Automatic annotation (TrEMBL):
It comes from Photobacterium ganghwense. It holds the Pfam family Phage_gp49_66. This is Phage protein.
C-alpha cells in the first residue's frame, strides 16, 4: 500500500466519523504541488538510488530519503520512483502539518 492510498483511507475514516476540523489532506497537498522530478544515481557498486524532488507552487522544493536498490538486476524504475515519491510526500505532510498548527495557533479559541 502506498502513502497516498493510506492517507486516503484515513481521510475516509475521519469523514465517516464526522471529524471535520482543519487538517492536512491529500487534496490540500496536491493543490500545492507544482511539479515532480526524479534524480537517479548509480553507485560504483552498481546499486541505484532514486530521489524524488517535489516542487511546490510557492517555489519551495522537498526531497525525501531515496529509494535504494543494491542489486541492479532488481532495479525497477516504476517501483523506485513510487518509493522515492512516498518518501518525499511524507516530508511535505510534516511541513504542512506544522504550517497548519502555526495557523491554528494564531486564531483565538472560544473559552
Amino acid at each position: 500500500m502506498n502513502e497516498l492510498t493510506r492517507r486516503n483511507e484515513i481521510q475516509d475514516m475521519m469523514d465517516k466519523k464526522g471529524l471535520t476540523a482543519p487538517r492536512v489532506t491529500v487534496e490540500s497537498i496536491a493543490e500545492r504541488i507544482h511539479s515532480v522530478e526524479y534524480v537517479k544515481h548509480t553507485l560504483p557498486t552498481g546499486g541505484i538510488l532514486r530521489w524524488c524532488v517535489i516542487n511546490m507552487v510557492n517555489g519551495f522544493s522537498v526531497t525525501g530519503k531515496p529509494s535504494a536498490c543494491c542489486s541492479p538486476e532488481n532495479d525497477d524504475e516504476e517501483i523506485g520512483k513510487k518509493v522515492a515519491f512516498d518518501n518525499a510526500y511524507r516530508e511535505i505532510w510534516q511541513l504542512e502539518g506544522y504550517l497548519l498548527c502555526e495557523k491554528l495557533a494564531e486564531v483565538p479559541h472560544a473559552a
